[in-house]
Specification:
single chain, 7-stranded mixed sheet
Length: 119
């Protein structure tokens, strides 16, 4: 059964960096799927902050553009989110997501990893 397992969350000061990872187990077709990182901030709805297509095209929410970088290593079935110049507003639970082939809906979620930024 497919599992998405995140790691790399934690606490940081504003201005610092963190790198999140998400490894897909039991996913031999990882390379054909678009992937993304969602964020659930306290008191807010979950939002898509970064998206990467199967061919590597990326897209970002305005709030993280220029600071976050999403990337993927298909050989190791791993998704990354490099987060630089972290801000207090980046605090939240970050979820790795695998989109359905050819669609925009999410087919699988990770369990989430918490990021806490202190100002």
């Amino acid at each position: 059964q497919e599992q998405l397992v995140e790691s790399g969350g934690g606490a940081a000061q504003a201005g610092e960096s963190l790198r999140l990872s998400c490894t897909a187990s039991e996913s031999p077709l990882f390379n054909i799927y678009a992937m993304g990182w969602y964020r659930k901030a306290p008191g807010k709805q979950r939002e898509l902050v970064a998206h990467i297509s199967s061919n590597g095209d990326t897209d970002y929410a305005d709030s993280v553009k220029g600071r976050f970088t999403i990337s993927r290593d298909n050989a190791n079935r791993t998704l990354y989110l490099q987060m630089n110049s972290l801000e207090f507003e980046d605090t939240g639970i970050y979820y790795c997501a695998r989109f359905r082939a050819g669609g925009s809906s999410v087919g699988a979620w990770g369990q989430g990893t918490q990021v806490i930024i202190s100002s």
